[in-house]
Fold each of these.
Amino acid sequence: MAVQPEFIRSIPYFAGLSQAGIDSIRKYIFEKKAERGEILLIEGEPAETLYFVVAGAVKVFKISADGKEQILQIIRPGESFNDASVFGGGKNLASVEAMGPVVLNTIKKSDLEAVIQEHPQVAINVIHVLSQRVHHLVSLVEDLSFRHVTGRVAKVLLEHTGDGTGEKPRLTQQEMAAMIGTAREMVGRSLKTLEGEGVIRMERNRIIITDQKALREMAGLT
Amino acid sequence: MADMPIIDADKCNGCGLCIGVCKCGILVLNEDKVAIVRREECRICTRWCAMCEAVCPNDAIRCPFEIVIEEKKDVA
């Protein structure tokens, strides 16, 4: 399928451009498809291409030295990824994997710079997109730096412990995040930390507290 | 059926992102709403991956956890 001008017009990067402007940009944009699990970007490699998700979803993630994955963001249709790396002129800041079948539009860094020269409106749009990205990352940094998210997740788990009869309401990671005022990604990270510490065990749709005393200590309840 | 993802048809806009990310392939679009088919295959996930929930832009699919304390087994 060829690159769709309707899609190009709908993405924030190219908002406010005339039809002629969209038509002139089309020649720089190419379509790429990928299947679930396909690695689209590898952290540390030269950042040469900006991507827009047309269909499907991808995850932006980092792998720690001990092999743990931390999802930084899920990118959905209409959104872009690799922005900061491309504009920074360096290397890919994170890896990206297709979460399912995806259709992407791509533009090379050099072509994007040409587009910005031709259409200054795009530069303003880019600032807006990068500003939103900074907001998201600052929020994550705040959680990582100042808030003891793992401790608060531990407290939520203790407060919502049931006896296996289904009497207590079940919680999603999104709901836990909303309860303690953090991002869903942080809850996932905290659950992995707690499991790594051996105080809980994740089993499909159950979180089993294996060391209640240690969990209470982590929650600051002792 | 809390051991299956829970779909809120009112919130689902039929975008299909969850279908793409489901590793078990148990989700389909049915009259522009997501539905679970092959329920037994949902159990292929040894862990509740919850990627369908993570990817949904409308909070229309939920993978809730039950939180329990491990029973200590008596050693005979």
Amino acid sequence: MRRRPASPGQAGQGRGLADLAGLAPAMALFGVFIVVPMLGAIALSLFRWNGLGTPHWAGAANWIQFAHDPLARQALTVTAKVVVLSWVVQTPVSIALGLFIAGRQRYRSVYAALYVLPLLLSTAGIALMWEALLDPNFGGLVALSRSLNLGFLRQNWLGNPALTLYVIIGLIAWQFIPFHTLLYQMGRRQIPDVLYEAARLDGASPAQLFWRVTLPQLRYTIVTSSTLIIVGSLTYFDIVYIMTNGGPGYTTRVLSLDMYQAAFQQNEFGYASVLAVVLGVVGVGIALGLVRFSGFGSMASQQEGAA
Amino acid sequence: MGRSGDRAGSRRRLTLAAVATMTVTVALAACGSAAGSGKASTTAKAGGTNLTMWLVTTGPSPANTVVNQAVSSFEKSHPGDTITVDYIENQSYKQKIQLAMGAGNPPTIFWTWGGGPLKQFINAGDVASLGNPAWASDFLPSSLGAVTFNGQLYGVPIEGTQPVFFFYNKTIFSKLGLTFPTTWSGLLSAVSTLKSHGYAPISLANGDQWPGLMYLEYLTDRIGGPGVFQAIELGKTGAWSNPAIIKALTDIQQLTRAGAFQNGYDSLHYSGGGSDALVYSGKAAIQLMGDWDVSQMLGLNKSFVTSGNLGLAPFPAVAGGTGDPADLAGNTASYVAISSKASTSQKTAAEAFMQDVLASSSYAKAIVSAGEVPVIKGATDLFAGQQLASYDQAIYTSVQQAPSFQYSWDQAVPPQEATPMLADLAQVFELTMTPQKFAATMDSQPSGA
């Protein structure tokens, strides 16, 4: 990221063909495993197919059904909540933790190791573990509420429609904050000390250092991390599937779960493809938008003239 | 993770729930390629016929041993013929068989729960009819309803029957001087007595959604008889709005309003054993569950079962209802069917396997020894000496005497209706959907049958 990439034209005309040949294996894999299935999903969204026999042409029927489906609208709302709240929760916490463990003190590396633990667990394991902890009759939180006399811990965490979605968002944060913390730790360590020295000489307070030096310098880290959080939570599936399966009612039924159920439980592959296309388009759209508006795509150095 | 098929699967070992759920995610990632996995090679070897058979399992269990022994005895008595058995995890099986059928590459013999999903395969021309074989009369008639379509038999039971009963903690009942109620109003008053003594009256694992469906199945039968659901199955217009269904849903909400279910019933999963723990630990008194709960309880708390504290009772009668209180609901059995893609010699061999092995009394005996209840006629004397003989005997007698054995609705209706039915019913339990709304929503489903 530090060096401005040479444009292909500068390196002479003969390189173009070689570049293409070098790209070919990657492009072939991308084509076979990404592009072809995507086109397949788009095509399938125009058919009715239960997975058996030949698909029947349905034209726009699946799309019209999508437009009128109250469950799909509900799933879109839930998904939007998960995306927005995940970003709002995970980003500040990850920045704070990342900056903290970026320090070189010994005790901080101990903390760093501890924070990273959830990252090592499989998602299914996390889901089952938390399900056991949150059980309203035998769970760990019930035991804790008894021994500490904390009544508010006695909640129907996974069965209360007003609460469950936030519990899920919290668990997703718990699972992924360690990863983003690592990103910010690295981002902070790459900021040259000269910048801080210069700012201090100019009399900057610690708060000013953070707002004027650290945060702008972390800009690309923020873009990377935000893209991962937003696209990741857009398609998030595992914990919801295992812990609530969309319930209670439809309060945690995210779009990816809706798609899964349409395809593999209701055998409506055409309609499920509509949902897949919607998810894909929204995801790619958001990712492209983030890259464009942040100027990340131009890959310009943020330390021009500093070194 | 509770959907229809879980119910059949949960009969077997559940300690592998973690593995199972991980498999699901893996299966999801791999679903695109599952159809291409070439396990279902259907080429006959010279000198004999090679069959493939896909069965569902949730881990090593006595039932697997029974099948393996049956297969090897078949191979011995039919020299040259071989059966290759693949065991597939419960949740991923449904996707796998659907994809294999769709790709025209199914195994010779495949596992099915009967009902709607099997009907869909039959409609697509994927299943070979068995006609009306004479040996089918060896099975209890009520056990073949799920695999009989248009008067033709399409499958044969391979595992035991799984009717649903009320299970209860006898210690709690005798402490309060209660006997298990035989009427719905009696159940309601038992609920209020239990509640006033600080018990959670009923343990319900409705995080899985299907445990709640059992209440609707039974109440509908008791109120309106088996005809109410048959009309639904036939796709009659407005069949869901039958007054019996509305009344059944209203009765369910009456239980919720009375606080009959334990705190957090709407998120508890059966496979974790939590709903059983409530009963054996004496926190809750009653649970409506399939008969597999006896063996699950035995695994979770052996002494509770062996000391006779686990009571078993039929679903109570509803005053003014037209259904016979001896009617049952549940999984009538698990079945195997033959793929229409099988060659003539494969079909002959597969039918021989069904007739000579699955319909034999020695196979029934092996099923009993694995702790299940077979659906073969005259199995009464097979239970003597079994650890759970008294339960097995009671279950078998109930099945034998049941005028109607309604197989689970989530298996009976087409798959595209089962998911909304379960999710909406959970909302009825939570009082966030009215019975009328439920019925109207279900009636507006495009029937895919």
Amino acid sequence: MDLATFVQLFVNGLGKGAVYALLALGFVIIFKATEVVNFAHGSLVLVGGYVVYALKDTLGWPAAALVGIVSAALAGLILERGLLANARSADHNSLALLTIGVDVIITEEIVRRVGADIPFIGDPYDSQPIQLAGVTIFRTQAIALVVGAVLITAFFLAFRFSNWGVAMRAQAENKEAAALMGIRSSRVTATAWLVAGALAGVAVLFMATQDFSGAGLGRGTHAIALIAFPAAILGGLDSTAGAIVGGLIVGVTEALSSANVDFLPFLGPEFSKSAVFLVMLVVLVIRPSGLFGTKELSRV
Amino acid sequence: MSEVVSEKAGSPPAAPPAQPRAAGARPRRNRIKIAATAVLVLFLVLLPILVGSEVAYLKVAQYILIGAVGGIGLTLLVGQAGQLSLAHPFFLLVGAVSYAVLAGDPEESDDLVGLGLPPLLALVGAIVICGLIGLAFAPVAGRLRGIYLGVASLSLVFLGLWLGQSLEAFTGGTSSGRTPPTFELFGFPFSNAEPSPTLFGVAIEKQQRLWYLFLVLAAISYLLARGAVDSRIGRSWRAVRDNEAAATAMGVNVTRVKAGAFVISSAFAGLAGVMTALWLDLVKPDENEFTGSYSLTVSIAFLAIVIIGGLGSVPGAVVGAAVVFGLQQFFLLGANEFGWFADAEFGGLNAVVLSAFVYGAAVVLVVLFEPGGAAAVGRRLVARLSPSDIPSAPRGGRSTPGSEPERNDDDPTA
């Protein structure tokens, strides 16, 4: 593999990684606020994507994208307020299982609505590669990288300095103590879902494109969203920085291993997806709580 | 000593005065139980006669048994041993392919590997292979917990997808797959071979024979699982699930118990895989990770079976299989036979989507309103039917002293 190819793969991989990072960050925000693992993240992605698909011909792409992001955020909020908040007696593991049920329903419904179309929704940038010093970079991935960097920076600034961020971190640290200090647990939880949904809504704008995977909005997108699971797990489920690192590792691993298939054809076409999971397995065997995750200690 | 844990696991401590009453009331309750079981067994045995020539219904029932065998394996792992696994479809695939390879006719094709073993041996071999692969994954499974293990196990599904497509000599490849050899038991083929015996005027042909085969396999699985749950091994699973440190202190070898649970669960899934191959009459690896017989959708479906049935409950897994696998096939049957969903008013709603709606909603409702799943509903019904021996029933107690050991409880997955 010559240098130009490597750079090309690496940059495109980073672009994908930025999208995975947005999704993984969503998982982590929800997990930190509520200790619930949101299996329905893939369906939040689909909700955002579906709204964009339905509206982009009437409203134009930019407005549709905005409405899509807001819809995904609201879907997250409704899921939390409508279902999870009403199941206080259930522990967080049961709630994770509940999100599986929600995911099945939303995914099937949207896949049914989209039908055989499997549309692509990245109109302004899809399939317009950038040539740069002999290196071909997908425009989708390049924009994803920039948008991802901006959003992630904004998130970390807010997480560090804003009242909301302080409240989030306080609740993640100790829910009871935070409540005693006057932090409204329900509001923190609700905003966590809102933010995670919005990030998923942004991510789908890049996922359901030709450039990203060739998989249009549908089960394919939903499956890509699942790759954010290894990203979040790799970094450690309760670490926001870990989500970013995990996302980038997953993106680059996927890009490099898919190129390797051309050199080592016996590995077969599906190897790149397996490669991501193999990397994750290796990391988990060495560090069972991910790279940056808090080790689980048990008092005896 | 591990009994202490199983009691702690859920049932209110047995109050001393309740003991004699429970002992006195048991025979009556057992009579109800035995009668119900007898009716159920009779129904299942006579099912081919009841459906007569409508073999399609029999196929639905067969599929439920596949879901039951796999679901029992998963409920032991997730509910009893507290290890979340999404790898079930991978073991189904391994089981199906192993059976086809072990029993396959070596002369059949130059491209396919076949060892030509007797089918019964191949069936056992497939189960053993799945158990061994489960054992190979045990070092990973032993180190991880909860969701970390769940996602780690997801990697096996992707591994299966990749290997299934790469190793065409074993799997037959995604385009055509390979036909699994007909199952035979001591020379009796499970096919349409003559002479076909008749039972009450219904010819016992391939589908009827497969039904009885599946019924026996499912019954063996059920009894083995119940046995495991009620014995020392089940107590050690629950001890590890509830508190690893406490389990260690009581002399449970946590690593070995966790590995054992994974092996046993994989073996069940392997058997379900062989049954799937026989049911479909085809072994074919999936084309992608989200649709197909061994895909992520199936991972979720199996998890739904376990949740709906009540985590850790063996009979619950059978009920869950009827809801998740049964409804899907039932709707498909309706679509094929009676043209359901064909009208435009359904707007592309089809059997698979509708059944997904039903089981998705069932999962949500179960978590919200009855975390114990079908098993808890069942226990309550039994309590309602025989109120005298259950003093705690009106207070919403889940279990009575002297009843079957506690299975599912509050902290299922982690």
Amino acid sequence: MRFSFFHLMPWTELEEAPPQWPVSNRHFDPERGKQLYDAYLDTMVFAEACGFDWVGCNEHHFSPYGLMANCNLIGAVLAQRTRSIRLAMLGNLIPLLNPIRVAEEYAMLDVMSGGRLIAGMIRGVPHEYIAYNVDPDESRGRLREAAALIVKAWTEPEPFGWEGEFYQFPSVSIWPKPLQKPHPPILMSASNEESAEFAGRHRAMMGMTLIADLGIAKRCIDVYRAAARAHGLEPTPGHILLGYNTCIAESDAEARAHLSEGLRYFHRVLMHSIRDAQRLVIQKSRFFEKEHGERFVNRLVTLKERSIDEMIEAGSVLCGSPESVVKQMRRIRDELGNGHFNINMKIGNISDAVVRRGMELFRDRVLPQAREL
Amino acid sequence: MTSASFEQHHVDLDSGRVFYLKGGEGPPILHLHPAGGPRVTPAMAALARRHSFYIPTTPGFNGTATHPKVSSMADLADLAARFARTVIGGPCDVVAESFGGWTALWLAVRHPDLVGQLVLQAPAGLRTTGGLPADPAERLRKLYAVPERAPKETRSQEVLAENRRLYGRYTGGITLDETLQQALPRIAARTLLVFGTLDEVCPIETARRLMAGIPQSHLTYIDGAAHVPEYDQPERVARLVGAFLERGEGFLVRRADAA
């Protein structure tokens, strides 16, 4: 089993839930922001010493939910402050961006890190399409075309032009090219069956997060596997990455208490206005096929309303003492066949000290048992 | 503009009669057709709003007579040169597809004074892999990424079989013309290479040989197209080729008012 340490870089200083999305930035204090970036980067660098295989981050806009408008900037810092851990950009929201710029920045990260990039090519959550003013109906088409263009930019030895539906570039020849050949590993989201089919068709690694039901997750993984096989990839467990909110403490009770507190801030403050914006996009566009849109909203509601015990039982979180967490991992692995956990410990406003203690426990008492899963 | 504005003509050259389609208005384009034979594609119809197309039929294709002294790709290039001088009146831009691209390359090598700008769409003759399968359904799948946009076939099986036989005769049954490859650096024309991202018939090795060999060449991929971008993605092809023909190297510079 491989492990990724994932960080959202949340803003932890809000007292009240923002009334609407986007969240007014009058609440952002740059001095406090500097402190948070320093602390979060220290935590992410520490993941290498704790035995994590990847350190991961992602892109969000216009919200205290995450302070990484461009996670490649964080990746550049990590490239300099780490030596061997892989840098997982999970990822750039490529339908919203200039794909040539993404190809260039990812190539820079790969070269600067000595070939450690995992290249996430992510469609993103619905409300990000308001932020960058892109038609949500075009999200799938843009994702497909941007991914193809990025791979072409990485692999084509001669200058080339591109005439597509969404992108036209008369002449492309990026410097640098990636270090990994033929190109860095690609990871795509597979959190619903539609996305899972897409990731498999592109022979990418699949990532899934916010799992509310192991049965539904298994169906997505089955769809991914079938699509990958149909397109020439025999997926291994290592191709399947499952994202988990995770709290590890000395005891089950302590971990539950920390997670409960962190989730309260996460749902009450960080997610509050986002849910409304997501509903708006889902209702007013074809971002999801209808049934997938309803499932997406229902999944968020389900995760919000469950108790910690219910979430553990449903396989939605990893929470407890190191020994309990290993058991929970084993059960999920047995049910879903994944070879990779993507662990997020900074949930809501859980303190960095608690996160760091959880990482030490992971290093000392989880990893020795879980590595061989 | 539709294909209805194209009319059939013929000219008697020293080697024999050449039939050709002519249509459109504007600077002349010599169009050299693929192994499928001459036709007016949607992209050509769009380009014909600002260009005059001359589309000669390769001798023997579509039931026409062969020319006894025209039997190789170099011969076809020389014939195209005679056609350009006689019918068009001299130098012109050349647009060519697949089999016609092979001829066009030889034309640019042997008659550089006649070729203005050169547009090659998935040209044949410089590949070691790819090609077309015999099975008709599989051929269709390889040729077109958007099969519903493929032209309806109205010719007899005999005509199509004879076209294929002649293709073998002119090309000598080879897929990699090494003599041509060595001659590519002699091509003076600025050249636009157009390839579908999904083309398995004429794989990307061809583009790389051409880019390495032709001094002034630009490669552009048409997303969502297989071997025949003219039918798979006509708007994208017309936009690209039109900009190249009208603005030359300037097609690299984005212009908000460009067509």
